[in-house]
Amino acid sequence: MGGDAAWGSSYYYDVYLSFKKLDTYHQITDILYQSLVDAGIRVFRDDAGLGAGDELARRILKAIDSAKIYIPIFSKRYAYSKRCLRELASMVDTKVKSGGGKTIIPIFYDVEPRDVRLETPLYRDALSELRNKYTPEDVKAWEGALREVGFLRGWDTRSGRYNLQIVDPQFNRSGYC
Questions:
Q1: SS3 of 40, please?
Q2: pLDDT (tens digit, 0 to 9) for every residue of the chain, 177 residues total?
Q3: Which helix (H) or strand (E) holds 148?
Q4: What crossing angle do the helices spanning 136-150 and 82-97 adopt, rounded to 10°?
Q5: Contact at 8 Å (CB) between 171 and 177?
Q6: In b/e form, how buried is each residue of 109-135, taking b as 16+ CB within 10 angstroms?
Q7: Domain-by-domain residue ranges, the chain?
Q8: 3-state secondary structure of 15
Q9: What is the pLDDT of residue 94?
Q10: Catalytic residue among 87, 129, 137, 143, which?
Q11: How many CB atoms lie within 10 A of CB 160?
């Protein structure tokens, strides 16, 4: 059975969704989430009611660590969110530590891969704002994660085709889940 599950010590997720709620929650995030759940894929997404503060951060890190596939949904305001950037940096770090056991599949929702790679002002401006609030180490990690994931092959929704009929072939036939 797909969807979110209770936090058991041995439970894991197939997919972790990272997204900026204001940009995508009632749009592509809901469509993708429901498509994956309908395909029997266990999905973690940060919904209301998961707690706050340190407890939420712990749950998110545990979900990232346990997931096999990460799907960051990049949108106009994604890089303005410390939380989204921390999730992304954690995904990249966990993927590296897994030795190839994890996969990142980015979705570019109303942004281009070059925005994510910091080749345009869109995400560069966001990081400039965050430099005034967070440590240089944090910002450097976020920049590195954005650049790395921006070069990965993903789904570009600007084509207008995101009915996600590709979910089944992508996940089930490739042996990810």
A1: coil
A2: 455 444 443 458 999 999 998 788 778 899 999 999 999 999 999 865 555 566 778 888 899 999 999 999 999 999 999 999 999 999 999 999 999 899 999 999 999 999 999 999 999 999 999 999 999 999 999 999 999 999 999 988 876 554 444 444 444 433 333
A3: helix 136-150
A4: 70
A5: yes
A6: bebebebbbbeeebbeebbeebeeebe
A7: 15-159
A8: strand
A9: 95
A10: 87
A11: 6
Q: CA 41, CA 175: separation in Å to the nearest integer?
A: 12
pTM as predicted: 0.83
Going by their DSSP bridges, the two strands 103-104 and 107-108 should be labelled as unpaired
Class of domain 15-159: alpha beta
Instruction: Give the separation between CA 129 and CA 135, rounded to whole angstroms.
Output: 12
What was the pLDDT predicted at 27? Answer: 81
For residue 7, how far is the Cα from the chain centroid? 20
Amino acid at 137: E
Residue with tokens 């010590």: 9
Reduced to 3 states (helix: H, G, I; strand: E, B; else coil), residue 52 is coil
87 labelled catalytic: yes
